[in-house]
Amino acid sequence: MFADRAKIILRSGKGGDGHVSFRREKFVAAGGPDGGDGGNGGDVIFEVDPGLNTLADYRHRRKFSAGDGKEGDKRRCHGKDGEDIVLKVPEGTVIYEASTGQVIADMSGENRRAVILKGGRGGKGNMNYATPTMQVPKYAQPGQPARELEVRLELKLIADVGLVGFPSVGKSTFLSRVSNADPKIADYPFTTLVPNLGVVDVEGCRGFVIADIPGLIEGASAGAGLGFEFLRHIERCRMLIHLVDAASLDGRDPVADVYAINEELKTYNADLENKPQIIAANKTDAIYLEEGQENPVERLKQEFEPKGIPVFPVSCATGKGIRELLFEVQNRLEQIPKDTQIYRQEFDPQVMIPNDSLPYTVVKSEEEPDTYVVEGPKIEKMLGYTNLDSEKGFAFFQKFLKDSGILKDLEDAGIKDGDTVRMYGLHFDYYKS
């Protein structure tokens, strides 16, 4: 079954808690702290699998979770890291944040592997908190919490050429004649229910990938017919072949059909209007003209060639004119940059935090000199959402301290340059910017 969309929930692994313990051995009096660190939670990773061409694996399973990190242990033993979960997707899959529709990652081009959700860092054991003035620390850092994120997956096929046109104009027949694809062909509308990809293989013509986009009708961009389901697959195509029924066997006007389909493409995505096009006037073997009747192919040429859109008369049934059409497509492709359209990142889960308020307290430590402790029911959760190991994440954290008023409260409490700020086991040196 072809599936090009899915909505799933991702959960990274929780960081293991740091351990509180003290060295207890024979002949060793008052051994120091030896609680080990917790293991890091597993990451959620997406990876391109060239053997996949649909998102069917994500249609019937909703939640995917990485492994949790294990708690640290005595004798400075580090907890085991949680296992990463690697989700395989076909090339061309775009990952969106479900509620905002913003792009998280585009699994195309050189982007073959992406960490979408980092696991929580393991908490530090009490062995890390021994100081000359605090030789028996009885606390350890909890592991950072797991994170959940709902995402929407969309597969946008990567093809050089998109084949568009109304139902029953011969797109499937054209694809079967020029490529290695084996689409279903029958004499009724909506024979093709899924996009088909084929590699053009004609002697003397270099190969390129062509996609048959099914179900376009008037109103497709607003959800009519099947076209809305598959319009996304045209977005990455470098050019379009617009196939029309020049013989008007179904009573349609080929000139009006071109305008109608182009209007649907423009309504769905204004950029599609600017893609290079070639019109293939199909079924020329079935054209029968009465005396004085205008040739529909000539009418198409008069209408569209002054606009820079060439018209090629072809017959998918007999093969007439197809070779010439393909050579023109190849020539045009050589003039169009081959770079795959990549959707840039708009949403970075690594610096995401909830939008609700974060109450906190700022107090000067009575046990540690020149140290200020910032605590609150949601501060730890905020730290779990922020990747302080990255430059972007740390800049985000600094902005958070300023915007939330924590820096001002620290200054009001008397903090000076070089003093220490402690947040749930994390230590930062304060310097006023």
TrEMBL record:
Record domain OBG-type G: where: 159-334
Positions of the OCT domain: 352-432
Cofactor(s) annotated in UniProt: Mg(2+)
Enzyme's top EC category: hydrolase
Binding site for GTP: 165-172, 190-194, 212-215, 282-285, 315-317
Location of the Obg domain: 1-158
Taxonomy, superkingdom: Bacteria
Record keywords, A-Z: Cytoplasm, GTP-binding, Hydrolase, Magnesium, Metal-binding, Nucleotide-binding
The keyword Cytoplasm is annotated on this UniProt entry: yes
Entries under InterPro entries matching the protein: G_OBG, GTP-bd, GTP-bd_Obg/CgtA, GTP-bd_prot_GTP1/OBG_C_sf, GTP1-OBG_CS, GTP1_OBG_dom, GTP1_OBG_dom_sf, OBG_GTPase
Pfam families associated with the record: DUF1967, GTP1_OBG, MMR_HSR1
Amino acids binding Mg(2+): 172, 192
Predominant place of localization: cytoplasm
Subcellular location: Cytoplasm
Gene3D superfamilies listed in its UniProt record: GTP-binding protein OBG, C-terminal domain (3.30.300.350), GTP1/OBG domain (2.70.210.12), P-loop containing nucleotide triphosphate hydrolases (3.40.50.300)
EC number: 3.6.5.-
Annotated GO biological process: ribosome biogenesis
Keyword Cell inner membrane: no
Gene Ontology terms, MF aspect: GTP binding; GTPase activity; magnesium ion binding
Function: An essential GTPase which binds GTP, GDP and possibly (p)ppGpp with moderate affinity, with high nucleotide exchange rates and a fairly low GTP hydrolysis rate. Plays a role in control of the cell cycle, stress response, ribosome biogenesis and in those bacteria that undergo differentiation, in morphogenesis control.
Assembly description: Monomer.
PANTHER family, sorted: DEVELOPMENTALLY REGULATED GTP-BINDING PROTEIN-RELATED, MITOCHONDRIAL RIBOSOME-ASSOCIATED GTPASE 2
NCBIfam families attached to this UniProt entry: Obg_CgtA, Obg_CgtA_exten, PRK12296.1, PRK12297.1, PRK12299.1
Family: Belongs to the TRAFAC class OBG-HflX-like GTPase superfamily. OBG GTPase family.
Protein name: GTPase Obg
Organism (species): Bilifractor porci
Gene that produces this protein: obgE
